[in-house]
Design goal:
The chain is mostly helical. The protein has one domain (about 20-455): MFS general substrate transporter like domains (Growth Hormone, Chain: A, Up-down Bundle), CATH 1.20.1250. Helices cover about 80% and strands about 0% of the residues. The chain has helices at about 5-15, 20-45, 50-60, 65-70, 75-90, 95-120, 125-155, 160-185, 190-195, 200-210, 215-220, 225-235, 240-250, 265-290, 290-295, 300-325, 335-350, 355-375, 380-385, 390-415, 420-440, 450-455. It is built from 22 helices and no strands. The radius of gyration is 23 Å and the shape is globular. The chain starts with a helix and ends with a helix. This is Putative MFS transporter. InterPro entries: MFS_dom, MFS_sugar_transport-like, MFS_trans_sf, Myo-inositol_Transporter, Sugar_transporter_CS. One of its GO terms (molecular function) is transmembrane transporter activity. It is a multi-pass membrane protein.
């Protein structure tokens, strides 16, 4: 056999290997690790501030106003990064944004290393708030590119579970951050500044693991680059049915921000944004300050209380992921929200409840809230079409972070001025609005192709 024949044979063998089922499974595993890693980092950055908030407040003489603002700083950063990332992802492609996002993560890692080294010189609440804000901006783009990528590569039969895994990673990151922060705070001589900087290690590992991902074939198809789309689809998508569904979309329409509020898609925008807002606002407020909230009720707080809320939340998210392809989306969306509303209302109205009853109510709320909260990682990638999937996800993420930021920012003030009962009743009202909205608009997308789920609100 000649050298040319051998080279041709090797090329054919390589091509066959790179389109094999095993190759596609390895790619999906990498995709899952890449995307869940970003969400883990998000949860970690947002959760690490809780255990050190006491020392941080005392060291810098922080008022309740600045305590809430610093805790919400990363959330406000996400508010900036997510809509810009969604716009860029739909206009310039998922892959360029993913590469830019990796660069932002690297920059964020260096900033966090810088912060870890020089936060000893951070001597004002404003400086610390700016640092947390910059960290959040790098996270924001992750929402608007990560979930669209996952939805556009995942097979319909597993899409809900795979996208739900990202929320499991978020809750795991939040819980582990609380554990790490608590242990370092209580049993080492590290200051709160370096404890906040521990997220640097995760950022570096994430950057190294996120290189070389392909462009979304659905985005390429929407741009009219059909041959490239077919080539990537044949190489990475699980079955020919996934490729056929991509071609079924048939549209080469360019997306715009205004399309979110058009007659065709305003319901999708209202549902995803409103549902997400109402799901995260009570959770962020309560979970970020779990220790101080539980102490207001006469409980010891500490590691058991804070980790307990996060661990139960993680269990709720895992339960939803396990049931999502059996029970469907809608069943796991509206009913749990009504339950969470009742639980928060009981906390607000039963002022003299025994401590153990209060703890049980908080833990039960955390379980159900995380359960339906997992759908916030699934619905955005399904109900928006390819041309506005990034913009829609980014906009909804921004709206949700308004709620999360306000909840985290206002909770210290509310606990001081309105008391625990008033604070819990406000949280119950927010959860109730989300339940009513989901009862009205939540679609069932189980087992449907992306072209079908995106068309659901347009009829």
């Amino acid at each position: 056999m000649s050298i040319l024949d051998k080279t041709a044979a090797i090329s054919i063998e390589t091509a066959e290997e790179e389109t094999s089922a095993a190759f596609k499974r390895r790619f999906m595993l990498r995709m899952i690790i890449v995307l869940t890693g970003g969400m883990f980092l998000d949860g970690y950055i947002l959760g690490i501030v809780g255990p050190v908030s006491g020392k941080m407040t005392a060291d810098l003489a922080i008022s309740p106003f600045w305590e809430g603002l610093i805790a919400a700083g990363a959330l406000f950063g996400i508010l900036i990064g997510s809509p810009l990332g969604g716009w860029a992802g739909d206009k310039y492609g998922r892959k360029p944004l993913f590469m830019m996002d990796m660069a932002l993560f690297l920059l964020s890692s260096m900033m966090q290393l810088f912060v870890g080294a020089v936060q000893f010189f951070v001597d004002s609440p404003m400086q610390l708030f700016i640092v947390r804000l910059l960290m959040g901006i790098a996270i924001g783009a992750e929402y608007s590119v990560g979930w669209p990528l996952m939805s556009e590569f995942a097979p319909a039969r597993l899409r809900g579970r795979l996208m739900g895994l990202t929320l499991i990673a978020w809750y795991a990151g939040f819980m582990i951050a609380f554990i790490v922060g608590y242990l370092l705070n209580e049993y080492t001589d590290l200051g709160w500044r370096l404890i906040l900087g521990t997220s640097t290690l995760i950022s570096v590992a994430l950057f190294l693991g996120r290189l070389g991902m392909p462009e979304s074939p659905r985005w390429l198809w929407n741009q009219g680059r059909t041959e490239q789309a077919r080539a990537i689809a044949n190489r990475y998508l699980e079955s020919s049915a996934d490729t056929a569904d991509m071609e079924h979309e048939g549209s080469h329409q360019k997306g715009s921000f205004g399309m979110l509020f058009s007659r065709r898609y305003w319901r999708a925008t209202l549902f995803v944004s409103g549902f997400w807002f109402c799901a995260v606002t009570p959770y962020f407020a309560i979970a970020t300050f779990a220790d101080s909230v539980l102490q207001k009720y006469g409980l010891g707080g500490g590691l058991a209380g804070g980790v307990g809320l996060s661990a139960v939340a993680l269990a709720g998210s895992v339960t939803t992921v396990l049931l999502i392809e059996k029970c469907g989306r809608r069943t796991l969306t509206a009913p749990p929200q009504w339950i969470a509303t009742v639980l928060l209302a009981v906390l607000g109205l039963w002022a003299g409840a025994p401590a153990m009853v209060v703890l049980a109510l908080f833990l039960t709320f955390s379980f159900f809230n995380a359960g339906y909260g997992t759908l916030t990682s699934i619905y955005p990638g399904e109900v928006f079409p390819t041309e506005i999937r990034g913009i829609g996800t980014g906009f909804a993420a921004a709206v949700s972070r308004v709620g999360a930021g306000l909840g985290t920012f206002l909770l210290p003030w509310s606990m001081t001025n309105l008391g625990t009962s008033g604070t819990m009743l406000i949280a119950a009202g927010i959860a109730g609005v989300g339940a009513a909205l989901s009862q009205w608009l939540a679609p069932e997308t189980k087992g449907k192709s992306l072209s079908e789920t995106a068309a659901g609100f347009s009829h």
